[in-house]
Amino acid sequence: MHYEYLTGEQVEHFLAHGYVVIKGCFTTEAARQWLQDAWVRFGYDPAAPQTWAEKRIHLSSRSYVDAREFAPNAWLAARDLLGGEDRMALPWLWSDGFIANLGVGDDRPWQPPSAAVPGWHKDGDFFRHFLDSPEQGLLTLVLWTQMRHQGGGTFVAADSVPVVARFLAEHPEGVLPDGFDTARLIGECNEFVEMTGEPGDVVLLHPYMLHATSQNVLGLGRIITNPPIALREPMNFNRPEAADFSPVELAVLRGLGVDRLDFRPAAPREAVVPRRVLAQQARAAAEEQRLAAARGTDPA
Ligand SMILES: O=C(O)CCC(=O)C(=O)O
Ligand SMILES: [Fe+2]
Fold first, then answer.
1. Per-residue pLDDT averaged across 64-78, rounded?
2. Does domain 8-295 have CATH number 2.60.120.620?
3. Which of 213, 218, 223 has most ligand 1 atoms within 8 Å of its beta carbon, as the pocket-test mutant?
4. Are 151 and 145 spatial neighbours (Cβ–Cβ below 8 Å)?
């Protein structure tokens, strides 16, 4: 495969460890502008951490921007990992559906990433998962604030892709979002990484990657988004030309220890309504009121 943006070394890192970090995809000023309404929507004063009662908040999406314009290097890197823009469902929209870690687990000593910490999961709460699922082509972490050591850096199990690949290969009938035996799967992993970085950094991860929210014991709000990027067609592990496999597909084949695979789902693809969306609907009216009050207007 020919890569337009990523170096051979970056692709090799993605194949071996399931992720690649793209630094400085947008400016700190752009991040600040995007974050403007975030604290009003949370309902908290950013300068008063002791008042942040809810430690983890996942906002709904209200505004969108095309990643191709907003963060061109992240877009180019994603395109390389997915095998070209013809395979991507476009536009790739980023939103203000912020995920804040405002002090998860700050009442106990910080624990480094390991199989023993809670919360390991594979993303994709909105579909039945198959080995070749197109709904989530990549997992992404977009950093809107600093993500510091012990400050809510997402934990990843960098050797989980082969483990999840084997699990999905054993389940051609598909797996519902809460049907992953995460306790067993994470027990097979050994390479744990705490992601850290600056506003504007973007981490592109294999869609199978097991990851977890970490403790944030620093008293500094950490805010990210996870804009998923979908494929137009399911992944294809049986391309006639080996050079046409994307790095995401190659990582699966390597994980299964085969050169190619004629995978066929044994059940229909299926959408699922996530609990996350129900929780966001419950927040919506209160958010509207706070936004209107902050602007000195009546709620629309
Ligand atoms: O908050 C984090 O660090 C990770 C969030 C996450 O994985 C999710 O919301 O699915
Ligand atoms: Fe996640």
1. 98
2. yes
3. 213
4. no
- Residue 106's CB is within 10 A of a number of other CB atoms, namely 18
List the structure tokens of 129. 């998962």
Say yes or no to pLDDT of 109 above 80.
yes
- The alpha carbon of 11 and the centre of ligand 2 are apart by a number of angstroms equal to 22
Q: CA distances (Å), 50 to each of 36, 144, 213, 226, in order?
A: 21, 21, 20, 27
**Residues in CB range of 265: below 8 A, 6 or more apart:** 130, 131, 132, 172, 173, 174, 234
Domain parsing of the chain, residue ranges? 8-295
Q: What percent of the chain has pLDDT over 70?
A: 99
Strand order in the sheet with 19-22: 19-22, 202-205, 139-143, 222-225, 99-101, 56-58
Instruction: Please check whether residue 137 is in contact with residue 88, taking contact to mean a CB–CB distance below 8 angstroms.
Output: yes
Residue 299 has pLDDT above 80, yes or no: no
> Among residues 62, 110, 97, 79, which one has the least CA distance to residue 216?
110
